[in-house]
Every structure is written in C-alpha cells, then in structure tokens.
C-alpha cells in the first residue's frame, strides 16, 4: 500500500502540517459521537471534517472506515480521542464548578467546548491557535449558525511566541481563577517552548486555577514507528505524526509545576478506560504506551 502523498508541513491552516491534526481529532470525535456508547457528543465535529477538502474522504462513522472498529486509526485511536475528550470535559466542568470562570484552550484546534459544555454563567472561553485554524473553525460554525453556551474569545497566536500578552489583551484576567487545557499540543512544540508555555501559565494564574495537559514519556518516539496507530495514520490519511512531533529532549513540566507549588497527578489513559468502561487498553508495540495525562492545581493562598 503506497498511501496518499505526504502533506506539506508549513501551512498555517487546517489543510496540512500540524493544523491537519485538528481535523484528525475532529474526525475521531465525529466517530465517537455516532457510537451507541459514546463518551462525548460533539455534533459540530462532523461538519468540520466535511468542510475541509483535505479530508473529504475521511470517515465520520466507524462503519465507514475500512475494517470498522478494528481499524487501528478510526477504531482504537479514535476511541482514545473520545476518551480524552470526555476526561478533559469533566476536568473543565469540575474546575468551573469550584470557581474558575475563565477557560483557556491552548492549541484549541476544533474544540467546541464553548458550544457543548454547560458551563456556569459568566464563564468565558479563550481559544488560542493559529489564525488559519481559527478562521476555518469560525467559517464552519458561522455556516451552522452555531451559538456558544459561554462567551467565546478566539485568540489567534503562535504559541511559540509571546502569546501571554495577546491573551490578556483579549480580556483574560490573571487575578481571577482559570482552567487551562493543553490537549494534544505539547509534543508538537520544541522542549524550550513547552517550558516557556508552562512558565507563562504559572505567571498568568492565581490560586484556585487548574491545568491539564498531555505528555509523551517515551525516550525514543521512533521506537514505535511501526506501531499500528502510527502506520495506519500515515498510510490511510498521509499524516506522519512522528514527523510532526518534536523528538528532542522534553522538559519535566509536571516537576516544574510542583517546584512552583502546584499539585500535579500523572495518569495513564488506560486508567480512565477502566474508570469509564470503554477506551483503549495496552497492547504490544503501542504508540499510546508513553502517553500521560497530567492534572495540576495551584493551591489557593
Ligand atoms: C492535535 S491538534 C489538537 C486540537 C485540540 N486541542 C483538540 O484536542 O481537539 C493540535 C493543535 O495545536 C495547534 N498548534 C500546534 N502548534 C501551534 C503553535 N505553534 N501555535 C498555535 N497553535 C499551534 C494546531 O494548530 C492544532 O490545532
């Protein structure tokens, strides 16, 4: 099987490079939405996939994928994204329930939490991503006449630069508690950029704030190059995740946060598969083996 030609990697929108990964997650959410036992419902996800020429032939239901649920990409990997979506939905809702009225989505992509979640009144959701990704998202949502359930503020930025001032200029208040997500983001950024991002989050948060992020612990990501998930993603949709990930040394962001007084717990996704009753379980040559979800809280003074 030769598969599609490699996609260009320097684009700002969703038609290639890391922006296209936002559509990969949207397609997985569309598939999850249509499952009879779905963990998260995202009625917008399918519309993003259908609106983007780059993924015109991608499935939005498991039965449209070759092999259905046994397809490593649209079965197991999509289940992973469905579980991650639900776990982080619950994290945001819990944090909002304990007082955080500002939600910051770092690398928001096609996240529709501002439209889907029943957040307390007065909540505002800041969505940070590149301008091209946010413009595509807005076009689709406007076409659907979608109405957010919380005030929503898109903030076009490059997270490798000084995005903190763009966020405060957009109305974010560092003196009020906030909840932050870096979902499927940090491994696309160089290590020093991740360190700067975590520093910036710490500098912009007060006690009572929370941050959830996803990390990959593998020392050598390429050891998993032949794993079914990476192989299927490359061959079926032309996304070579290992070429998009930054494979240099990673910082210990959890350790950096605890050194600054945060509490931070580290979990495998498989723990949540067991807790929620569905999702991926470990398997041999598993690209998900090193994935960890970190939940960090800054104590109130
Ligand atoms: C895998 S997607 C995840 C999107 C979303 N968090 C989700 O889980 O659905 C990664 C996102 O990070 C964004 N991203 C990667 N590098 C970025 C950068 N330097 N500046 C802004 N956004 C970036 C991409 O545009 C993309 O939308």
Question: What keywords describe this structure?
Answer:
single chain; 301 residues; alpha/beta; Rossmann fold; 7-stranded mixed beta sheet; 11 helices; 14% strand; globular; disordered N terminus; binds S-adenosylmethionine
Question: Would you kindly provide a written description of the structure presented here, covering whatever features stand out?
Answer:
With 301 residues, this protein is an alpha/beta fold. It has one domain: 3-Layer(aba) Sandwich (Rossmann fold). It is 39% helix and 14% strand. It is built from eleven helices and seven strands. The chain has helices at residues 17-34, 45-51, 72-97, 113-116, 131-143, 163-169, 191-203, 228-237, 241-244, 253-259, 269-276; strands spanning 102-106, 124-129, 151-156, 178-182, 210-216, 263-267, 291-297. Strands 3-2-1-4-5-7-6 form a seven-stranded mixed beta sheet, sandwiched between helices. Strand 2, helix 5 and strand 3 (151-156) form a beta-alpha-beta unit. The N and C termini lie far apart (58 Å). The relative contact order is 0.15. The chain binds S-adenosylmethionine (SAM).
